[in-house]
Amino acid sequence: MADKRKLQGEIDRCLKKVSEGVEQFEDIWQKSPGTDWRGHWGRESHTDGVRSLLPQLHNAANANQKEKYEADLKKEIKKLQRLRDQIKTWVASNEIKDKRQLIDNRKLIETQMERFKVVERETKTKAYSKEGLGLAQKVDPAQKEKEEVGQWLTNTIDTLNMQVDQFESEVESLSVQTRKKKGDKDKQDRIEGLKRHIEKHRYHVRMLETILRMLDNDSILVDAIRKIKDDVEYYVDSSQDPDFEENEFLYDDLDLEDIREAQG
Q: Does this entry carry the keyword Nucleus (predicted)?
């Protein structure tokens, strides 16, 4: 009984920190100078809403101001991510029976993570575009192609990681339901299927991260990456389809496993 009270106390303190962290994140978001975008979050899809109604974080009068707001948001999101990791540990534990509040708070943190990802991506895109306006005539075509492929790799990795988060969220929700209602074979089959998707997604993320590092180090040709692009996009878009057929030899020509082993 004492252990349960201690655990509940830790959970309560954690959830209090989540509430305070989200409030602080929102406060920084609202204070960012800019257009009247407040109150629109949630009326559109998360990404579309943020893209079209971002605060004038990226149009601040000077670079220092813009960087300060993004740094403050990043600081708060890092704190929230650490709390999310703790919550995920509790959700996976059998000691806690009612996990609805934990799952709700984890989703609340993930909403802020999505908001920050869009802010971060928009900032990088604007910086790149602004620099490109002045240097358009000087850009080496090979370098431009390398940057485009690198951006595609980064975006694909982000998409896969977001799908993994969604799968894990569904697994947690279904696990709670199956504990309440034993013998639900459909839900159990779905959980096993989601776990397979998570494992396969993480494999592709590892491969793509290796390719991105190789690209940064000029140890792989852009053309070699382009050859796998269609198959990778097919996997990202269609891996959950019942008739999906994966190319098991997708990365073989790139010798990525040998490189990963050599890197330890």
A: yes
